[in-house]
Amino acid sequence: MFSPPIRISQGHLNLLETCFRKYQHIYLDQLGSPIEPEQQESLIWGSQFHLLMQQRELGLPVQIFLQENAEFDRSVSSLVQAAPDVVNLEDSTGREAEHPRTLTWGRYLLVAIYDLLIVRGDRAEIFDWKTHRQPQKRDRLARHWQTRLYPFVLAETSDFTPEQISLTYWFVGSRPQSLKFSYNTVQHEQTRTDLTQLLTQLQEASDRYQTDQIPFPQVSLAKKICSRCEFAARCQRIPNQRISENKEKIKTANFSVSLDSIKEIPL
Ligand code: SF4
Predict the structure, then answer these.
(1) Residue ranges making up the domain that contains 224
(2) Ligand 1 pocket, 218 CB below 6 A?
(3) Do 80 and 48 contact (CB within 8 A), yes or no?
């Protein structure tokens, strides 16, 4: 029987690297935890900003919206001033907003959506708008799967060599800042190795779970991340007195795998 490929985004890869059991709880058991109102507000703001930038790239009128929303207006104006060579629309050739790319990987489909892709001569530049208030640390971002997957998928699905590709994050706000990551063949091959390892483990864990109901492996206690996890009670990784408290926080949800929601998972 034909089974459609399973979509894997950078968000899934980060989650797998954190804890396989957490991936099981969220994507296979469809357990989710309620989003705090503050986080919800920030997600909405982020997704509206992405939509606004996409509409601007498409040449659709955004002025009326900006006139009525001072914070968006300030953020877009600041970005235009800080990155004129990126957001200047005078030359619209070789650029596309919300550019999607996919790469088949066995039973999986690796998915990348670039907020903006600009091709200048023999170089391909990927841009990503980050709507967190604070820029993230470079070394942390370098390890993040978005930084690794996005150039990897582009190099695998185009004529660009790794050395011709870069990824730049723009942290938007009143004082926008950017972090640029160049790419090269050594990084590309390391990512290939790491992807092979991670997705082979996922395939094996999924098979064991589906055929013998063997749960996905839990993260090592030595990593000390369970106390901050919403599934700590379910995983029996917190003292008994905190279990009932924790249970309250977890609810069964119709959790659909939305790429939009994955995009702005805090790095
Ligand atoms: S409590 Fe620990 S083992 Fe369980 S899902 Fe969370 S991180 Fe993984």
Answers:
(1) 6-263
(2) yes
(3) no
